[in-house]
Amino acid sequence: MADAAMAILTVHHWTDLAAGIAELRRVARRRVVILTWDQELTRDFWFLSEYLPEGAALDDARAVPIADLVRLLGGARVEPVPIPHDCTDGFGAAYWRRPEGYLDPMVQAGMSVLAQLDQSIVRPALDRLAADLESGRWHERHRDLLGMEEYDAGYRLLVADL
């Protein structure tokens, strides 16, 4: 057994959520920590809402409601995880203030939403983003983001003390 067990941006891929959470609880002596997202907030993230609504729809179908996770954990603290403007991890909203990152194939390779959608959907979305960046439209629409140090895209840390 370990003192803690952790799941990072993965529970939406599990075929048996209850069994997975039970296993986390079984192997952890003191704590289970899950990093996930609240789809009610994340679906409004500009990359999804403006360029890839199909990605928001995919996440609507696979996102695990926070309340379900809290229940399966037997209770948990839920803490917002704001994303710093210079985040280099590469997950879905990591490039919220640096949109050109979404055009980088290495960044794209690490995002399951881009991997799970057909390229006939993804490619035109990325082309629209590239055009908006080149024309300055993205910066005009999102000038409010450019001065922010961090952004809440709906990521949540669930901490269950056993």
Task: Provide a descriptive summary of the structure in words.
By secondary structure, this protein is of the alpha+beta class. It has one domain: Rossmann fold. The chain is built from ten helices and six strands. Strands 1-2-6-3 form a four-stranded mixed sheet. Strand 1 (2-8), helix 1 (17-27) and strand 2 form a beta-alpha-beta unit. The longest helix is centred in the last third of the chain and has 17 residues, at 119-135. The chain starts with a strand and ends with a strand.
Which helices and strands occur, and which strands form pairs?
Layout lengths: L1 E7 L8 H11 E10 L1 H4 L3 H6 L1 H10 L3 H8 L3 E4 L2 E2 L20 H5 L2 H5 L2 H17 L1 H5 L1 H4 L3 E2 L3 E7 L1
Organism: Microbispora bryophytorum
Protein name: Class I SAM-dependent methyltransferase
